[in-house]
Amino acid sequence: MKHATQAALEGLSALLAQIRTREGLKEKKLGVFYLKSKSFLHFHEDPAGLFADLGGGSAFERYPVNTRQERQELLAALDQALKRCHPRSHERARCAATHRERSGRTPARSAGFPPGTG
Question: Is residue 67 part of a domain?
């Protein structure tokens, strides 16, 4: 699954604008957000649609973002992740693990996606 192109991300401009309002995130390039020095949120595209990978460290959780409802679910998950992973947190590994446990979602790597695609 390839990273989302600029054209694909332009279709998510309203979602990206909402994400940019979240404290602690830094958009280093279009659609790629960092929390402190770690990649925290980025987007992919494939024939099935657009997806956001949220998390950090070695495991990201994949969220579809093709409908309004899916985008709202991503924003809710993002807000929850940011509450647990405050920008001052120096315990990134614990933060990512806690996010996975509480969300009940399977990390992209263990969901059948090849390593390096998250």
Answer: yes
Domain count, the chain: 1
Nearest to 36 by CA among 100, 80, 76, 93: 93
Q: Which residues contact 82 (CB under 8 A, 6 or more apart)?
A: 22, 23, 24, 25, 35
Would you state the structure tokens that stand for residue 105, as one six-digit string? 């979602």
Do the domain assignments include residue 18?
A: yes
Do the domain assignments include residue 116? no
For 57-113, how does the pLDDT look when each residue is reduced to its tens digit (9 = 90+)?
A: 668 999 999 999 999 999 999 999 998 876 454 344 445 444 555 555 554 443 444
- 70 is in which domain, residue-wise? 2-111
Is 65 inside a domain boundary?
Answer: yes
